[in-house]
Amino acid sequence: MGAAPQAPRTRVTARARDLRFDAGSLSLNLVATVGRRPVGPVERMGDVERLAAWCSGVGLTPAPGYEAEALLRSLHALRDAAYDIASSLLDGHRPSPASVDLVNGLAACEPPVARLELTPAGVRPAPGGDLLTVDALLSTVARDLIGLVSDASRGKRLTMCASEVCRMLYLNPASGRARQWCSMRRCGNNAKAAAHRRRRAATAEG
Question: What is the pTM of this model?
């Protein structure tokens, strides 16, 4: 992304460190594990406990025995590449070749194919079918990003939160009114409250 205006100084509250699962796609939910990009970044997935919470929140289940620290490092690297690539759709900058190579390399692993099993009670997903190796998990996220970039209709819905503090990348809904804020309950309400304070201050000065 190009040079950004300096955001106002704000406290890094517990809410600012909350994991976000409302960006509209798996890869954008990964990007959202860093808040307040590009000014004053806030790490939201900095340890293995947060990694486990993020995987649970997006519905990805690593197979038993995985090295959590190694997966965390790999997701951090993929996160940076995903932000570089996704944000290029908004500001037109040229993504780093390293970002593109990383995403392509991770996507090359074939994720497991979902399977069904027939039981006396009927058809159900085969047990263990949702367990992912580290390579498969990373591939799933990388392929989601490639799908986002490849889909012109989804690319047009990609936007950035209007809050100079937040700047979260998210997908607007396919139908209905486009959102200016990542969340009305968060940045939207904050903006309304700030505007109200400015109006009151202007009235008092007048």
Answer: 0.84
